[in-house]
Amino acid sequence: MAMMEITVVPLGTASPSLSDYVAEAIRLLEQAGVEYRLCPMGTTIVGEVDDLLQLARRMHEQPFLQGALRVATTIKIDDRRDKPLTMEGKIRAVRDKLHQ
After folding, report:
1. Structure pTM?
2. Which domain holds residue 66?
């Protein structure tokens, strides 16, 4: 499994608020049935790389369907193949090191 952090920023919207756009992107993830975590500045999703890239494409397109005139999307992928990768595992590894 891989992990993707994605931030989709609609530009050219009628309001500075983006929560309606974020909600629609999260609906896509819920419909896809993937593990995700909504964060204040982006969303982390766990899955196979091909699936993550397809989801990224759908999330990038969603604001256009809602009327945005421009969309800037940033994607980071962590694809570790020597052992299982989980969101909690990554956080726990750092916290363990902080408390050593």
Report:
1. 0.90
2. 2-98
